[in-house]
Amino acid sequence: MMENQAKQKALPYEYGDGWVAVQNAALTIYTLHPEFRGNTLLVYMYLLKNFNRHKGYSFPSYDDMTLQLNISRDVVSDSIATLRKLKMINVNRRGGAYRASHVYTFNPLIDSEEHFAEEYPEAMKNLERRRTVRAAIEAEKAERETLIPLE
After folding, report:
1. d(Cα 21, Cα 31) in Å, to the nearest integer?
2. Angle 33-121-73 from CA coordinates, rounded to 5°
3. Whether the model pTM is above 0.85
């Protein structure tokens, strides 16, 4: 490799004050699940943002998430329940009985629509709808590319 070859960048612009990387599947495949909402993704990304590599987990409090994300405690709780149900995260307790807190670890995501629908059959309806819309878009594109002779 050449020394002066440009490095691949995660963002399409210069920014050095931090950013969050998220696997594409969280944006494209997990959205098939009927319980996965925009706030679910927001909470997931916030947990990723707060991941501590040295400790191996993320540990923001519910209060911190409600304040920073401008969502209610119930929405945080529901989002975390969905993330757990979809096996995107694991939740553990740390600390004693009086000062316990949650810590979050992450699992690799499913990166195939078919495998996701097998694992979560309730996502099949949304997958079928997505495939129908995708087929209609492809048919429309093909029709636009058909050459029609002018007389």
Report:
1. 17
2. 35
3. no
Amino acid in the structure at residue 130? R
Domains of the chain, with CATH numbers? 24-143 (1.10.10.10)
- Its sign, for the CA torsion 114, 24, 133, 81, is positive
CB 33 within 8 A of CB 86: yes
pLDDT, tens digit (0-9, with 9 covering 90-100), for 96-145 = 667 678 999 999 999 999 999 999 999 999 999 999 999 999 999 888 88
**How would DSSP label each residue in the chain?**
--TTSPPP-SSSS---S------HHHHHTGGGSTT--HHHHHHHHHHHHTEETTTTEE---HHHHHHHHT--HHHHHHHHHHHHHTTSEEEEEES-SSS-EEEEEE-PPP--HHHHHHH-GGGHHHHHHHHHHHHHHHHHHHHHT------
What digits encode the pLDDT tens for the residues 57-103?
999 999 999 999 999 999 999 999 999 999 999 999 887 667 678 99
